[in-house]
Amino acid sequence: MKLSRFNTFFILCSTVNPSFIPVKRICKDCKYFIGDTLQCRKFGDTNIVTGEVTYPYASVIRGDSKKCGEVGNHFENNPYKLVTGPYYFVKKNLFLTFSGVIIGINVVSIIIQVISKIP
């Protein structure tokens, strides 16, 4: 009985609706954001001698009103966010990932050797 009163009160008095809350454009959700270096791919500069592309940090771009600004003028939603997030994690921790796999394979091979020696 008390729970139903609480639910009725909550439904009648709750005016918070997610559609009323403004959505901020966050760099990590943008398709130009480079996750492992925190840089913005939209405003890269190419060195004319070496051909190397350097990208400014996303915090610098968001601070410059002529580029993206606080509002995020050049923001484009990243439809592949579920793919790029794990990609940058594996790229950053590549050594740990492969060393864990190698250690796991070694442990399994040792266990197989021990089991095969049991009469």
* Neighbour order of strands in the largest sheet: 1-2
What best-fitting shape do the alpha-carbon axes yield? flat
Mean pLDDT: 76
Number of domains: 2
Q: Termini separation (Å)?
A: 67 Å
Radius of gyration: 25 Å
- What portion of residues is helical? 40-55%
Keywords: Membrane, Transmembrane, Transmembrane helix
Transmembrane segments: 94-115
Summarize the SSE layout with pairings:
Elements: H1 2-13, E1 33-34, E2 39-40, E3 45-46, E4 53-54, H2 58-63, H3 81-92, H4 94-117
Antiparallel strand pairs: 1-2, 3-4
Transmembrane segments: 94-115
Keywords: Membrane, Transmembrane, Transmembrane helix
Describe the overall structure:
Keywords: Membrane, Transmembrane, Transmembrane helix. The chain crosses the membrane at residues 94-115. The protein is mainly alpha-helical and 119 residues long. The protein has four helices and four strands. A hairpin with a 4-residue loop joins strand 1 and strand 2 (39-40).
List its traits.
119 residues; mainly alpha; 2 domains; two-stranded antiparallel sheet; two-stranded antiparallel ribbon; 4 strands; flat; transmembrane helix; membrane
